[in-house]
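Quick sanity check, CAAX prenyl protease:
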Amino acid sequence: MPEVDPAEYARAQEYSAAKNNFGFVADLYGLATGLVHLWLQAAVWNGPALSLVLRCGGTASHELARAGASMLLCAPWDLLSGVPVDLYRTFVLEERFGFNKHTWLSWLGDSLKHFVVEELLMGSLMMAPLVLLVRSLGPSSWLYGFGFTSLFVLLLNVVYPVWIAPLFNTFAPLPEGDVRDGVEALVKSSGINCSRIFQVDGSRQSAHSNAYVAGFFGSKRIVIYDTLITHLDGDVEDICAVVAHEIGHAQLHHNYALLGVSTAQLFVMFRLFGVCTDPRLVTDFGFDAPCAYLSLLTFFTLWSVAMPLVSFGLNAFTRQLEYQADAYSVRLGFDIRKALAKISKTNLSDLNPDPLDSLFHHSHPTTVQRVLAVKQLLDTCERKAL
Ligand SMILES: [Zn+2]
């Protein structure tokens, strides 16, 4: 690990502490607003949503119509309740450390797009068929619900990089030059079946840098943030080391592994849903009578409270995948340590996090852990070569 300037180290620690403190408050706030949302939905479901459906000629048992009316009537709360946290994160926390690149207008535009596309549109597209399945298939409906949701998640993985991500950023071919030549040569030598390489204008929102390989089947693409190229000073060797790491994720089938884990998680969730048939799960929140939509809504909300425990296991898994992708980059002939150190410096990464906090929250090992693992691997390769 290259020497770290004490002032830079202190700045990174200050950023981590500020993020952790804010994260704790934001989690509590999210839990509280999630529960308020449920109580609010009950009041709207029993009152204005029912009146609206009756006025349009429906009946109280038209649950999809009532669900749609409730969703629309509660939309202002859903949109506005997240605003304080997002505003603070963007214009106070990230701004203070020089990462925020949003203007008020671009932030507002992105927030509205996220809400309409990801919450209203995708939420409805998933929830409506799920309600019909749970409503009509009786005791084994949890299994059909699991099957449908798993397919929906797979489809989303194919569709998101092609149709949805471009709504928020511009994905352009890498500009001609040394970086593009280097990355194209790397793609060819690695044997990855992926011809789409994009540069994304991540700098429109944030100064943080990233790169990834996304999509399944025909939608697979390599995406490099413009900020990554800037942070690595346009150094072709360093950029290729990072892209080789991302190619490693794809070539080692980490996307399928993560899809498998999320499918297993969905199975556990729906099996539990199949067991939780007590109507009080719905009526205790103030809803007038249980139905498929309300059972799903209350169960998903309660499940989201247990998510930190799930992400604890998932993070332990993804940290191992990161080591494997680093090793893949080394096997392709790159020493990724310099790039990791540069990225860590510009992203103000926490070099010395609390181990317990790290265990729960970090999907990646720390830079120090990754650099040491790469060093160990390079030493072993050297010894074998002697
Ligand atoms: Zn990675």
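Posting the structure with no commentary besides this: Residues 245, 249, 322, 325 surround zinc ion (CB under 6 Å).
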